[in-house]
Amino acid sequence: MAAAAAFSLREVLDAFRGCVTEQREVLLEPYLSGWRGLIRFLQSLGTVFSFISKDAVAKVTLLEELCHQHRFVSVQRMVQQELAAGPAALRAQPGSGCRTLLRLHRALRWLQLFLQGLRSGDSRTSVLCTDAYNASLAQHHPWLIRKAATVAFCALPSRDAFLDIMNVGPPEEAVAMLGEAIPYISDVYSITQELFEKNDLLDLP
Ligand code: 1PZ
Protein backbone atom coordinates (compact mmCIF):
# COMPACT_ATOMS: atom_id res chain seq x y z
CA MET A 1 0.00 0.00 0.00
CA ALA A 2 1.68 3.15 -0.93
CA ALA A 3 2.06 6.49 -2.53
CA ALA A 4 -0.93 8.72 -3.01
CA ALA A 5 -2.60 8.43 0.38
CA ALA A 6 0.63 7.91 2.30
CA PHE A 7 0.58 10.13 5.29
CA SER A 8 3.71 10.68 7.28
CA LEU A 9 4.01 12.29 10.66
CA ARG A 10 7.26 13.80 9.41
CA GLU A 11 5.41 16.39 7.30
CA VAL A 12 3.15 17.22 10.19
CA LEU A 13 5.96 17.79 12.62
CA ASP A 14 7.81 19.69 9.89
CA ALA A 15 5.01 22.24 9.88
CA PHE A 16 6.13 23.30 13.35
CA ARG A 17 9.63 23.90 12.01
CA GLY A 18 8.16 26.47 9.64
CA CYS A 19 6.27 28.33 12.38
CA VAL A 20 8.98 30.47 13.91
CA THR A 21 10.22 33.49 11.96
CA GLU A 22 13.57 35.24 12.33
CA GLN A 23 11.85 37.78 14.58
CA ARG A 24 10.68 34.84 16.71
CA GLU A 25 7.07 35.29 15.75
CA VAL A 26 4.86 32.20 15.60
CA LEU A 27 3.06 32.02 12.25
CA LEU A 28 -0.50 30.83 12.47
CA GLU A 29 -0.79 29.19 9.09
CA PRO A 30 1.85 26.49 9.59
CA TYR A 31 0.80 26.19 13.25
CA LEU A 32 -2.78 25.37 12.30
CA SER A 33 -1.73 23.16 9.43
CA GLY A 34 0.47 21.22 11.87
CA TRP A 35 -2.58 20.79 14.06
CA ARG A 36 -4.70 19.65 11.12
CA GLY A 37 -2.15 16.94 10.44
CA LEU A 38 -2.00 15.85 14.07
CA ILE A 39 -5.78 15.61 14.12
CA ARG A 40 -5.76 13.43 11.00
CA PHE A 41 -3.25 11.21 12.70
CA LEU A 42 -5.38 11.03 15.84
CA GLN A 43 -8.44 10.16 13.73
CA SER A 44 -6.54 7.26 12.20
CA LEU A 45 -6.03 5.79 15.68
CA GLY A 46 -9.71 4.92 16.01
CA THR A 47 -13.08 6.17 17.17
CA VAL A 48 -12.18 5.99 20.89
CA PHE A 49 -10.39 9.27 20.28
CA SER A 50 -13.26 11.01 18.45
CA PHE A 51 -14.27 13.11 21.43
CA ILE A 52 -10.74 14.50 21.51
CA SER A 53 -10.42 15.08 17.78
CA LYS A 54 -13.84 16.73 17.61
CA ASP A 55 -12.82 19.33 20.16
CA ALA A 56 -9.49 19.90 18.42
CA VAL A 57 -11.22 20.29 15.03
CA ALA A 58 -13.63 22.85 16.49
CA LYS A 59 -10.75 24.86 17.89
CA VAL A 60 -8.61 24.76 14.76
CA THR A 61 -11.62 25.66 12.59
CA LEU A 62 -12.47 28.64 14.79
CA LEU A 63 -8.89 29.88 14.64
CA GLU A 64 -8.76 29.44 10.86
CA GLU A 65 -11.91 31.52 10.54
CA LEU A 66 -10.58 34.25 12.81
CA CYS A 67 -7.30 34.34 10.91
CA HIS A 68 -9.19 34.73 7.69
CA GLN A 69 -11.55 37.35 9.04
CA HIS A 70 -9.04 39.51 10.86
CA ARG A 71 -5.93 38.66 8.87
CA PHE A 72 -4.02 37.48 11.89
CA VAL A 73 -0.69 36.29 10.58
CA SER A 74 1.10 35.45 13.77
CA VAL A 75 0.16 34.57 17.32
CA GLN A 76 1.79 37.84 18.42
CA ARG A 77 -0.44 39.88 16.11
CA MET A 78 -3.52 38.05 17.23
CA VAL A 79 -2.75 38.71 20.89
CA GLN A 80 -2.01 42.36 20.15
CA GLN A 81 -5.22 42.89 18.16
CA GLU A 82 -7.46 41.04 20.56
CA LEU A 83 -5.98 42.87 23.52
CA ALA A 84 -6.50 46.24 21.87
CA ALA A 85 -9.99 46.52 23.37
CA GLY A 86 -8.57 45.83 26.83
CA PRO A 87 -8.01 42.70 28.90
CA ALA A 88 -11.50 42.74 30.42
CA ALA A 89 -13.16 42.65 27.01
CA LEU A 90 -10.94 39.78 25.96
CA ARG A 91 -11.72 37.80 29.10
CA ALA A 92 -15.43 38.24 28.47
CA GLN A 93 -15.21 36.82 24.98
CA PRO A 94 -15.80 33.05 24.97
CA GLY A 95 -14.88 32.67 21.30
CA SER A 96 -11.65 34.63 21.29
CA GLY A 97 -8.63 33.49 19.35
CA CYS A 98 -6.46 33.83 22.45
CA ARG A 99 -8.51 31.53 24.71
CA THR A 100 -8.89 29.03 21.88
CA LEU A 101 -5.20 29.02 21.03
CA LEU A 102 -4.39 28.65 24.72
CA ARG A 103 -6.17 25.26 24.68
CA LEU A 104 -4.10 24.07 21.72
CA HIS A 105 -1.00 25.52 23.32
CA ARG A 106 -1.56 23.42 26.45
CA ALA A 107 -2.09 20.39 24.23
CA LEU A 108 1.20 21.16 22.46
CA ARG A 109 2.93 20.75 25.82
CA TRP A 110 1.29 17.34 26.09
CA LEU A 111 2.58 16.50 22.60
CA GLN A 112 6.09 17.61 23.45
CA LEU A 113 6.17 15.44 26.59
CA PHE A 114 4.58 12.47 24.90
CA LEU A 115 6.96 12.51 21.94
CA GLN A 116 9.90 12.84 24.33
CA GLY A 117 8.66 9.76 26.15
CA LEU A 118 8.18 7.86 22.92
CA ARG A 119 11.68 8.74 21.88
CA SER A 120 13.13 7.66 25.22
CA GLY A 121 12.33 4.03 24.43
CA ASP A 122 9.72 3.28 27.07
CA SER A 123 7.40 0.76 25.43
CA ARG A 124 4.28 1.52 27.47
CA THR A 125 2.59 4.14 25.28
CA SER A 126 -0.50 4.45 27.46
CA VAL A 127 1.66 5.13 30.52
CA LEU A 128 3.73 7.67 28.58
CA CYS A 129 0.57 9.32 27.34
CA THR A 130 -1.03 9.42 30.81
CA ASP A 131 2.14 10.85 32.39
CA ALA A 132 2.40 13.52 29.70
CA TYR A 133 -1.29 14.32 30.14
CA ASN A 134 -1.07 14.54 33.94
CA ALA A 135 1.89 16.89 33.66
CA SER A 136 0.11 19.21 31.24
CA LEU A 137 -3.54 19.27 30.16
CA ALA A 138 -5.03 17.34 33.06
CA GLN A 139 -4.76 20.26 35.49
CA HIS A 140 -7.04 22.27 33.20
CA HIS A 141 -9.68 19.56 32.73
CA PRO A 142 -12.58 18.61 34.96
CA TRP A 143 -12.80 15.11 36.43
CA LEU A 144 -15.10 13.66 33.78
CA ILE A 145 -12.81 14.61 30.91
CA ARG A 146 -9.73 13.37 32.78
CA LYS A 147 -11.50 10.07 33.34
CA ALA A 148 -12.57 9.73 29.68
CA ALA A 149 -9.10 10.67 28.46
CA THR A 150 -7.39 8.15 30.73
CA VAL A 151 -9.73 5.40 29.52
CA ALA A 152 -9.08 6.31 25.87
CA PHE A 153 -5.30 6.23 26.40
CA CYS A 154 -5.55 2.50 27.20
CA ALA A 155 -6.53 1.97 23.55
CA LEU A 156 -3.23 3.34 22.25
CA PRO A 157 -1.20 0.96 20.11
CA SER A 158 2.13 -0.39 21.34
CA ARG A 159 5.29 1.64 20.80
CA ASP A 160 6.34 -0.40 17.77
CA ALA A 161 2.93 -0.12 16.15
CA PHE A 162 2.85 3.56 16.98
CA LEU A 163 6.23 4.23 15.39
CA ASP A 164 5.08 2.20 12.40
CA ILE A 165 1.88 4.14 11.76
CA MET A 166 3.85 7.37 11.98
CA ASN A 167 4.95 6.19 8.56
CA VAL A 168 8.45 7.61 8.75
CA GLY A 169 10.34 4.40 8.05
CA PRO A 170 11.99 1.84 10.32
CA PRO A 171 11.80 2.47 14.09
CA GLU A 172 15.31 3.96 14.27
CA GLU A 173 14.39 6.48 11.61
CA ALA A 174 11.16 7.38 13.35
CA VAL A 175 13.08 7.93 16.59
CA ALA A 176 15.67 10.08 14.79
CA MET A 177 12.89 12.15 13.23
CA LEU A 178 11.41 12.73 16.68
CA GLY A 179 14.81 13.92 17.86
CA GLU A 180 14.81 16.50 15.06
CA ALA A 181 11.21 17.59 15.43
CA ILE A 182 10.89 17.94 19.21
CA PRO A 183 13.17 21.02 19.51
CA TYR A 184 10.99 22.89 16.99
CA ILE A 185 7.83 22.02 18.88
CA SER A 186 9.49 23.06 22.15
CA ASP A 187 10.52 26.35 20.59
CA VAL A 188 6.98 27.13 19.43
CA TYR A 189 5.72 26.16 22.85
CA SER A 190 8.11 28.34 24.81
CA ILE A 191 7.67 31.44 22.63
CA THR A 192 3.89 31.18 23.01
CA GLN A 193 4.16 30.47 26.71
CA GLU A 194 6.31 33.54 27.27
CA LEU A 195 3.98 35.72 25.20
CA PHE A 196 0.89 34.59 27.09
CA GLU A 197 2.64 34.93 30.41
CA LYS A 198 3.83 38.44 29.64
CA ASN A 199 0.29 39.48 28.73
CA ASP A 200 -1.26 37.68 31.68
CA LEU A 201 -3.32 35.40 29.44
CA LEU A 202 -2.39 31.98 30.81
CA ASP A 203 -5.66 31.61 32.70
CA LEU A 204 -8.11 32.92 30.11
CA PRO A 205 -11.49 31.30 30.84
C1 1PZ B 1 -2.32 9.83 20.78
C2 1PZ B 1 -3.29 9.99 21.85
C3 1PZ B 1 -3.97 11.27 21.88
C4 1PZ B 1 -4.05 11.84 23.20
C5 1PZ B 1 -4.42 13.26 23.21
C6 1PZ B 1 -4.16 13.88 24.56
C7 1PZ B 1 -5.06 14.98 24.86
C8 1PZ B 1 -6.27 14.57 25.63
C9 1PZ B 1 -7.23 15.69 25.64
C10 1PZ B 1 -8.61 15.35 26.07
C11 1PZ B 1 -9.54 16.40 25.56
C12 1PZ B 1 -10.97 16.02 25.67
C13 1PZ B 1 -11.97 16.80 24.91
C14 1PZ B 1 -12.40 18.17 25.33
C15 1PZ B 1 -11.71 19.04 25.94
C16 1PZ B 1 -12.04 20.47 26.21
O1 1PZ B 1 -12.89 20.60 27.31
C17 1PZ B 1 -10.73 21.18 26.46
C18 1PZ B 1 -10.90 22.59 26.96
O2 1PZ B 1 -11.53 23.36 26.01
P1 1PZ B 1 -12.76 24.29 26.47
O3 1PZ B 1 -13.80 23.36 27.05
O4 1PZ B 1 -12.22 25.23 27.49
O5 1PZ B 1 -13.19 24.96 25.21
N1 1PZ B 1 -9.97 21.13 25.25
C19 1PZ B 1 -8.63 20.99 25.22
O6 1PZ B 1 -7.98 20.94 26.24
C20 1PZ B 1 -7.95 20.88 23.87
C21 1PZ B 1 -7.55 19.47 23.60
C22 1PZ B 1 -6.92 19.28 22.26
C23 1PZ B 1 -6.33 17.91 22.16
C24 1PZ B 1 -5.64 17.68 20.88
C25 1PZ B 1 -4.87 16.43 20.87
C26 1PZ B 1 -4.23 16.14 19.57
C27 1PZ B 1 -3.42 14.91 19.65
C28 1PZ B 1 -2.60 14.60 18.47
C29 1PZ B 1 -2.05 13.23 18.58
C30 1PZ B 1 -0.98 12.89 17.69
UniProtKB/TrEMBL annotation:
It is found in: Cell membrane; Cytoplasm, Cytosol; Endosome membrane; Golgi apparatus, trans-Golgi network membrane. It is a peripheral membrane protein. Its main location: membrane. Residues 27-167 form the Glycolipid transfer protein domain. It comes from Catharus ustulatus (Russet-backed thrush). It comes from the Eukaryota. SUPFAM superfamilies: Glycolipid transfer protein, GLTP. InterPro entries: GLTP_sf (IPR036497), Glycolipid_transfer_prot_dom (IPR014830). Belongs to the GLTP family. It catalyses: N-(hexadecanoyl)-sphing-4-enine-1-phosphate(in) = N-(hexadecanoyl)-sphing-4-enine-1-phosphate(out); N-(9Z-octadecenoyl)-sphing-4-enine-1-phosphate(in) = N-(9Z-octadecenoyl)-sphing-4-enine-1-phosphate(out). The keyword Acyltransferase does not apply. Keywords: Cell membrane, Cytoplasm, Endosome, Golgi apparatus, Lipid transport, Lipid-binding, Membrane, Nucleus, Transport. This is Ceramide-1-phosphate transfer protein. The keyword Cytoplasm applies. Pfam families: GLTP. One of its GO terms (molecular function) is ceramide 1-phosphate binding. Gene3D superfamilies: Glycolipid transfer protein. GO terms for biological process: negative regulation of interleukin-1 beta production. GO terms for cellular component: cytosol; endosome membrane; Golgi apparatus; nuclear outer membrane; plasma membrane.
